[in-house]
Amino acid sequence: MARIRYGIVGTGGMGTGHARTMQRIEECVLAAVCDIVPEVAEAVGEEFNVPYCTDYHELIDRPDVDAVVVATPHYFHPEISIYAMERGKPVISEKPIAVTVSAADAMVEAARRTGTPFAVMYQSRTEPVWRAAHRLVKEGRLGEIYRTMLVYADFRSQAYYDSAGWRATWDGEGGGVMINQAPHSLDRFTWLGGLPCKVRAYTATKNHRIEVEDVAAAMLEYPNGAVGYLYCSTTEAPGTDILELSGERGKLQVIGKTLRFWELPQGVKAFSDTSPEMWAHPPAVEVNVEIEPCESGHIAILRNMARHILYGEELVAPGVEGLNTVELINATILSGHTGEEVSIPVDRARYDAFLAQLRATSTFRKRSGPDLRITDTVHH
Length: 380
Hints:
Blueprint: E1 4-9, H1 13-22, E2 28-34, H2 38-48, E3 52-53, H3 56-60, E4 67-70, H4 77-86, E5 91-93, H5 101-114, E6 118-120, H6 128-138, E7 145-155, H7 158-162, H8 183-193, E8 198-204, E9 215-221, E10 227-233, E11 235-247, E12 250-255, E13 258-263, H9 268-274, E14 285-287, H10 298-311, H11 322-338, E15 342-343, H12 348-361
Parallel strand pairs: 1-2, 1-4, 2-3, 4-5, 5-6, 7-10
Antiparallel strand pairs: 7-11, 8-9, 8-15, 9-10, 11-12, 12-13, 13-14
């Protein structure tokens, strides 16, 4: 069997996790690893018996590396990914693809200009429940969407935020819950419900000693006049994960891993316009939706890219779609800080200046010491 030889740039918790996952995929093999910390690069290289280096250019330029996984902190995703794509090396970027919409634009432009395959590690798209939900939307079963709603409320300890100097800082991450913990939920939200055109948000730091937001809420407006709401936080236990879309022909609700779908055969507005009854409601029929078992998680995205390169299999999470998440993240953070409504597409120059000011004026200092590189086995 032909195999794609992956190189991994960034061997922290996620990068090392991907290296382990590759050992279980027939269509690929780990070829080399890179990390800016020499002793880390050496340790991971020796663990997996592959060449190692500290310069990503060296890894990408290796003739025995066919494709690249970028698993560094967020700010470095664009620089590394673009270098790889310009050398014809397919890329899987960890989420989000970039911190700012302008940087995400550059990645998308590089993918389109070079024709190099580009994917983002939005592995929750591969889960059976979300495949089924997307199928319903794609088939038009909801009709025109009137309302969207997302609640992603999770928990992170102070020890989590203290585990690395780059975490929860404007200079290290460029945001908080919106840019680190919520992107998978935000990706599913935009994948199913589309991208809003206006955002009015509230952001705050409630329960942690960090300089970025651990709570964000926003009212949304869509191009067709639909309205929406999102809430994201790392301050709650037990966690809550709810997505709901309400349309003319149906309502979709996913709570955790449970999907429910109601069909409205006559349609909401159509019924309202034609029913002579004052207190009548449009008939709603709950439909059993088949949830087909399938491979999911990081392994599915890594295999999908390998099969895309080898056999032309369609990408599950194209990198160009990662721009939608960054648009929503930037709009929410900017609106939360300014108290103003923000339009999407986000003003690129304005957001770059806004973030540069936050980075330049930050006085936040974290504990000293080496970063803890521990693979997340809970939120995978």
